[in-house]
Amino acid sequence: MIMIVMEDDIFNLMLHPQPINPLDQNPAAIFIASKPSEHSRRTMRHALDTIAKMVAPDLDALQFQWEYLRYAHTAMIRTHLLELDYKPATVNVMLAALRGVLKECWKLGLMSAEDYHRAADIANVKNSTLPAGRELTAGEIVELFRACNLDTTPLGIRDAALIAILRTTGLRRAEVVRLQISDYATSTRRLVVHGKGRKERAVYVPESARFYLTRWLE
């Protein structure tokens, strides 16, 4: 638990449950609801619950009085997250959630602009670790296609198409699983990719991958 020195009245407000504001006036509820997917909402709720309980163990994100946080408190929260040995990416997600709920406090008129900007001015943690996994060799890719070709079931044909798309277009795994048949135009080889935050972009499937994709669609 972080021990934050504050005036007694504010300290009591933060450590003890307060009447929960209606959802349309609760900064944490508004911030969580603004996320586009259930996964994002669940992630942000967990992050805010974690931070709230670091300061006040008996409170959750919806009960915590976020508007009373100031820069000294948010800086200590960042330091404590690092001391708990969270991975840099996890710490940055939690800091993003903290900045987000503080912004909602300001937009709701619960914090002044100066207090908000000061409290939210906490830097992300730099990630110096190498990405997980490794690059496949050309021989390994050939073996993957060979294994798919030996599997004459629809699963083998599907897997070959997936490997071809991943190898030639640079799509992320999450983007591949979101693909729909309607996203691909056979005549132009244009593929609409659905990314994070409902963003879309178009890529063109190379001829080397077109064969596998066409075989799967047929």
Element layout with pairings:
Blueprint: H1 8-15, H2 27-33, H3 38-55, H4 71-83, H5 88-107, H6 113-120, H7 138-150, H8 154-169, H9 173-177, E1 184-185, E2 190-194, E3 200-204, H10 207-217
Antiparallel strand pairs: 1-2, 2-3
Helix pairs in contact: 2-3, 2-5, 3-5, 4-5, 4-6, 5-6, 7-8, 8-10
Beta-strand residue fraction? 5-15%
What CATH calls the topology of the largest domain is DNA polymerase, domain 1
Topology order in helix (H) and strand (E) letters: HHHHHHHHHEEEH
What number of domains? 2
List keywords for this structure.
218 residues, hpI Integrase, Chain A, disordered N terminus, three-stranded antiparallel sheet, mainly alpha, elongated, single chain, DNA polymerase, domain 1
Compact overview of the structure:
This protein has helices spanning 8-15, 27-33, 38-55, 71-83, 88-107, 113-120, 138-150, 154-169, 173-177, 207-217, and strands at residues 184-185, 190-194, 200-204.
Describe the fold and architecture.
The chain has helices spanning about 10-15, 25-35, 40-55, 70-85, 90-105, 115-120, 140-150, 155-170, 175, 205-215; strands at about 185, 190-195, 200-205. The termini are far apart. Strands 1-2-3 form a 3-stranded antiparallel beta sheet, with no helix packed on it. It is elongated, with a radius of gyration of 24 Å. With about 220 residues, the protein is mainly alpha-helical. The protein folds into 2 domains: about 10-120, DNA polymerase, domain 1 (Orthogonal Bundle); about 140-215, hpI Integrase, Chain A (Orthogonal Bundle), CATH 1.10.443.10.
